[in-house]
Amino acid sequence: MDPLNVAVRSVPQEHYAKAIELLEELREVLETRDEARLPEVGITRDQMPPGVDYDAVLDDNLDKCHWQLSQFKKYAKPTLIASALPNLDFVVNRAQGGKRDVIPIYTRAVALARTPEREAEALEEFEKIMPDLSIPEMGQVSALWARAEWWRLLLRQGKVQKAKEQEEWLQDWYQSHPYAMPPSKFAEAVLDEGEETNAILDGIPDFGKGVVELPGGMFGGMNAFIRFG
Question: What are the structural domain ranges in the chain?
C-alpha cells in the first residue's frame, strides 16, 4: 500500500494505524529535507528534470502528505480528527492566495471544534466559511459533515437558536434533494460516533422509508438506491 496515493476510504480500518505511521515518517523526511533519506521515498535532486524546482516538489509532496494524514485521521474509527489540526494548519496556510478550496478550511474547523480549548476559534471559522459556500459546495458530503459538527458545537455552547437554524438547514437540504445521496450516506455525514439517530434525522419525516439501497462501488463510493413514492 502506498499511503500517500491510496484512496483513503478504500483502506480497511485495521490498516489505518500503519498508514498513519508511514505518513508521519514521510512527513518528517520531507520537513527535514534529509538528503540521506529522501531517496527512500523516491525523491532525489539528480533525478529532477531540467527546470523543475526541487524544493517545490518537496513542498507539494509535503502538502499532499499532510492532507492524507488528515483524511486517515478523519475516517479512523474512533476518529482522530482533533489530532489532524497541525496537518490541516499546514494545508490551509499553504493554500492562502491560491485556488479556492473550502474543504480543508471547514475540515480544520471541525478539528478545532474537537479541541476543547479552541472551540471559540472553531465557531469563528464555521461562521466565516459555511455561509460562503456555493450551492454545489454546500451539498458535498464533507460539507454536510462539517455543518453537523457546527450544529453540535453550537448546542454545546448554548447557542440554541443558531443550532436550530443549522439543524433545519440540514433537514431542508435532505428533503429538497431526495436523489442526491442514499439515506445511509446522509446519516453517516450527520451522526456523531456512537449515535443511531439524532435530532437532525428525527426531524425528517419518514427518514429512510421508501428507499432500497444497493451495495455501492469501491473506493468509498455511495450505495445505489431506489426511492419509491
Answer: 1-80, 100-229
pTM of the model: 0.90
Dist CA 89 CA 12 (whole Å): 27
Residue 157's closest CA among 193, 126, 133, 192?
A: 126
DSSP of 122-168, one letter per residue?
Answer: HHHHHHHHGGG--HHHHTSHHHHHHHHHHHHHHHHTT-HHHHHHHHH
Which residue is associated with the grid cell 524546482? 53
Residues 93-148 have pLDDT tens digits of: 998 777 789 999 999 999 999 999 999 999 999 999 999 999 999 999 999 999 99
pLDDT digits (tens, 9 = 90+) for 74-92: 999 999 999 999 999 999 9
Q: In a 3-state reduction of DSSP, which class is residue 227?
A: strand
Distance, in Å, from the CA atom of 202 to the CA atom of 198, rounded to the nearest integer, reads 6
